[in-house]
Design a protein that fits this description.
With about 170 residues, this protein is an alpha+beta fold. The chain contains four helices and five strands. It has a five-stranded antiparallel beta sheet with strand order 1-5-4-2-3, with helices on one face. β4 and β5 form a beta hairpin.
Length: about 170
């Protein structure tokens, strides 16, 4: 006859083994789901995979002549699940890792006609483990533009240049 403590140990070992098998099965199902679904059905360089953007209009001035006064870049994701924000503003101190020249360059890019006239097409969620970016720009005339993009997507050169200077 088996003692009560031995019976408990045997049950705990059985439960532990089952838990381990369930965890392995769950991980396999997740991996299989990712492999079967892929990372999206749209190539990263297709036109509709560009950055999503919105804009608001300020006063009655021409938006292409407005000067960027503040740029906020929010980066999330990646394998480590980062969540970082940089605030770049005229007259403000450079964010950590950026120089005063970097700040001027970011504001110049955001003020450029090319940046202000970028299309605001709908982005598609392409895959996991990429950085996602939210970029908000405030202009001197009160207008603003917001973009959402991912490092897995091809975006217009000015946005790519701006993101390259931050972080």
């Amino acid at each position: 006859m088996t003692s009560e403590p031995d019976q408990r140990r045997a049950r705990l070992n059985t439960v532990s083994a089952l838990s381990s098998r369930i965890a392995t099965l769950s991980a396999s199902v997740v991996i299989l789901g990712v492999l079967v679904s892929g990372c999206g059905d749209q190539p990263a360089d297709s036109p509709s995979a560009a950055a999503t953007g919105t804009e608001t209009s300020g006063g009655g001035s021409d938006e292409a002549s407005a000067t960027a006064t503040k740029v906020v870049v929010h980066q999330t994701g990646g394998i480590a699940g980062l969540d970082r924000t940089w605030t770049i503003s005229a007259g403000g101190p450079p964010p950590p890792g950026m120089s005063a020249a970097d700040v001027r360059r970011v504001l110049d890019i955001a003020s450029s006609t090319e940046f202000q006239s970028m299309p605001t097409t709908r982005a598609k969620d392409i895959c996991c483990d990429h950085f996602s970016y939210s970029v908000s720009v405030i202009y001197s005339d009160g207008s603003s533009r917001q973009f959402a993009t991912s490092e897995a997507q091809r975006q217009a050169a000015p946005l790519d240049d701006l993101l390259g200077l931050v972080g």
